[in-house]
Design goal:
single chain; about 300 residues; mainly alpha; 3-stranded mixed sheet; two-stranded parallel sheet; about 45% helix
Length: about 300
């Protein structure tokens, strides 16, 4: 990486001698990465979805992330960094909270004096990030990195903290994370229930079986009643004859969606599953598919990597 910017006593974006740099789309057309028709289609799609042009091109397979990263660095007159070969040190986790890193897809990369160099693929959000950090936030200077590298960097820098936060998000008194049959209370409850079942089986087997059947029928009846109630509510509410069809507001844009797909010892269906996920028609720039694997399930992990 060239570093004339990093040797400045007061780091600032590089001043341009001429007119502003071309936007990403025009740079990619001029470089022959995409053609004019692809650019126009992507710009048209951008009017209906809330996503940067570069993300649209990458997610649709029209451009490589490296090409978009380099074009962004030219447009915003800053450096591009490779977080895979030059990641932030663990101490950088103290520079920004993990929630802001996730929300703004940004990663604290280096300190230069009192200036924080922030790796991002959305340099247009750097002022909003600065405001979110509060009045005591340091001076921020963006450097460009790919979204995949930033996401991997957030995981490496904050992974343990985020995992702990997820596990302890619900207060312990209303959480199920402490439920365990091996705990003293769990062992006592298990022994008591098992003892009652054994006593009932030997002393009153007919009454025990009858009681279990009554409980099963009651559970089935309650489930059926709930379904019938929902059906009755649907018919009673009805739809007014003069109602107009629902219309989508002109300003509405589809939201970003993260789809979590848990897999455990599923190497036999992984190929078919991925092929089906590829056929989803939701805008790819707004869709994140996360395959959730167990750390101990190395068989499925190796298969997914291949």
């Amino acid at each position: 990486m060239s570093d004339p910017l990093l040797r400045l006593p007061e780091p600032e974006p590089v001043a341009r001698a001429g007119p502003p740099a071309l936007p990403v789309g025009r740079q990619l057309v001029n470089a022959g990465v995409i053609d004019q028709d692809t650019l126009l289609k992507s710009l048209t799609l951008q009017q209906y979805i809330d996503a940067p042009l570069g993300e649209i091109l990458v997610s649709n397979g029209d451009a490589d992330r490296g090409d978009v990263t380099r074009a962004l660095s030219v447009q915003y007159a800053t450096d591009a960094v490779d977080l895979a070969t030059d990641p932030p040190t663990p101490a950088m986790a103290q520079a920004m909270p993990a929630t802001l890193c996730q929300g703004y897809c940004a990663l604290p990369w280096r300190w230069f004096g009192d200036t924080l160099l922030v790796a991002t693929n959305r340099p247009d959000l750097i002022l909003a990030l600065r405001a979110a950090l509060g009045p005591r936030a340091p001076r921020l200077l963006p450097v460009i990195a790919s979204r995949d590298d930033i996401t991997a960097g957030i995981t490496a820098l904050y992974g343990d903290h985020l995992a702990t936060r997820a596990l302890t998000r619900v207060p312990e008194r209303i959480s199920s994370r402490t439920w365990s049959l091996s705990s003293p209370l769990g062992v006592a409850a298990s022994v008591m229930v098992a003892g009652l079942l054994v006593l009932g089986f030997f002393n009153a087997p007919a009454e025990l079986i009858t009681g279990l059947m009554v409980l099963s029928v009651a559970a089935l009846a309650m489930t059926s009643a709930l379904k019938l109630g929902a059906l009755a509510a649907q018919f009673l509410r009805g739809v007014p004859a003069d109602s107009l069809p629902l219309s989508t507001p002109a300003t509405w844009k589809p939201p970003r969606i993260s789809m979590l797909v848990p897999l455990y010892h599923e190497e036999n269906i992984a190929d078919a599953l991925i092929e089906r996920l590829k056929k989803l028609t939701y805008p790819k720039a707004l869709l994140e598919v996360v395959l959730v694997l167990e750390a101990k399930d190395q068989v499925t992990t190796r298969h997914i990597r291949r």
